[in-house]
Amino acid sequence: SDVCSSDLVWVMRKHQATIKANLRQEAQHHECTLRLEGCLTSPCLLAHYRVIDVSGMSMKSPDLVAAISCYNCHELIDSRQGRMTEQEINAAWALAMARTIKIWSLEGFL
To answer: In a 3-state reduction of DSSP, which class is residue 96?
Structure first.
């Protein structure tokens, strides 16, 4: 049978409970993984990627669907003011989330 998006959301939210750290707090201790033009490197926060059927009105994506981001990179990628194409935004998110997952894994949080 096909896995529908609501099943994927359920799996991610269930796995969220097994993470061994508060990733939102941990992000403050790391450098930005988005690394866009104008990156401040730090201080950072955990920036959540918006995905249809995973996030929506007043509902953030799970912390696993996020990247460590400085304020400038978060503003640039979140503002969608035409400075980056949709393809560039998605590519930046994919790379940053991979870098972030690697950090969490090396630190034993996943």
So the answer is: helix
